[in-house]
Structure formats: C-alpha cells, structure tokens
C-alpha cells in the first residue's frame, strides 16, 4: 500500500484567480462533480469521459441538499463526488475548462432556466484545484518554485463546501 501523490496541507495551499492561470499548462486537477437530475445516469458518463483524459481516483459519492433551497422554494438534492485527474497530456487551464463544458453538454446540461423553474443540473464539473506542469530548462534546474510544483486552489471555489472537503480528504488518504 502506498499513499497517492496528492499529499495536501489545506492550510498552506496557494489560492489564485482562474483568470490569471488561463494559459498555464495543467497536469493534474481536483474536480467537483455534481448532479441533481438523473445522477445515476450522468455521473458514470462523466467519470468515463474523465478517465479518457487520464488516470482518475474517485471519492465516495454523497447526496446533499441544495444549499440554495428554501421552504418556499424546495430543490432536488445533489449527488456530489470529487475526482483527482492526472492528465495523459497537459493542457492549458482554458482548454481544460472548455473540455469540461463540452463534457457537461454531452450529459445534456442546459444552462438556460426559465424564471421560477426548478434548475435541473444533469452534470456540473468544477475545478477546485490544479497542479501546473513543472517547467524544466537550464535556468530552472536545481530550483524549486512553490507556485509551480504545489497545488493551486481556484480562488472562486474557496472556501470549499463541506462535501468537497470530505471528498478531498478522502482522495488524499486513498491507498492502493
């Protein structure tokens, strides 16, 4: 048994706005999957599509109430799961985001909702954290840069929701 390469210290993670990282080359990502409509159908499709991009490790899938639901406006529960994805081929954050939008569309995701209509989310894929490619050249040999080698939290996703924390913690303690 060995621990996965996802050793994380949540207290020391670097946060960065995704807009700043659009052109950076990503090699690993931690994702949050969510579905409040036919999750049993769409989660396997999403996982299969993600596995085609690289090696994946999955947290347990959790069913959670929609935190925006009220007594006056009830909403269906979400099924959520975290995924650690090690890409076969590095891609820019912008390409990765576009790839996930395409995967959501392949799961029949529709973003337009009529007013007062319950929002059915077949698949939502959010990037929680990324690991950038380490750039090796004659100037960087022997040097380590925290911003290049460590996990970077997407500032627009932090602080993490309770189910995301549980999923990330589960992924970091995964052994095989």
Automatic annotation (TrEMBL):
The keyword Kinase applies. Its EC number is 2.7.6.3. GO terms for biological process: folic acid biosynthetic process; tetrahydrofolate biosynthetic process. It comes from the Bacteria. Keywords: ATP-binding, Folate biosynthesis, Kinase, Nucleotide-binding, Transferase. Residues 30-132 form the 7,8-dihydro-6-hydroxymethylpterin-pyrophosphokinase domain. The keyword Oxidoreductase does not apply. InterPro entries: Hppk, Hppk_sf. Pathway: Cofactor biosynthesis; tetrahydrofolate biosynthesis; 2-amino-4-hydroxy-6-hydroxymethyl-7,8-dihydropteridine diphosphate from 7,8-dihydroneopterin triphosphate: step 4/4. GO terms for molecular function: 2-amino-4-hydroxy-6-hydroxymethyldihydropteridine diphosphokinase activity; ATP binding; kinase activity. This is 2-amino-4-hydroxy-6-hydroxymethyldihydropteridine diphosphokinase. It comes from Psychrobacter piscatorii. The lineage of its organism: Bacteria, Pseudomonadati, Pseudomonadota, Gammaproteobacteria, Moraxellales.
């Amino acid at each position: 048994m060995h621990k996965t390469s996802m050793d994380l210290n949540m207290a020391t993670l670097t946060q960065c706005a995704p807009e700043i990282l659009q052109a950076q080359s990503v090699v690993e990502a931690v994702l949050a999957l969510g579905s409040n409509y036919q999750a049993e159908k769409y989660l396997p499709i999403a996982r299969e599509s993600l596995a085609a991009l690289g090696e994946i490790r999955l947290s347990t899938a959790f069913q959670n109430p929609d935190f925006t639901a009220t007594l006056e406006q009830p909403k269906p529960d979400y099924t959520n799961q975290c995924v650690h994805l090690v890409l076969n081929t590095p891609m820019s954050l912008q390409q990765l985001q576009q790839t996930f939008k395409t995967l959501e569309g392949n799961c029949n995701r529709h973003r337009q909702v009529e007013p007062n209509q319950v929002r059915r989310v077949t698949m939502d894929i959010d990037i929680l954290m990324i690991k950038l490619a380490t750039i090796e050249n004659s100037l960087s040999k022997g040097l380590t840069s925290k911003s290049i080698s460590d996990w970077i939290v997407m500032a627009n996703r932090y602080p993490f929701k309770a189910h995301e924390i549980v999923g990330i913690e589960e992924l970091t303690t995964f052994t095989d």
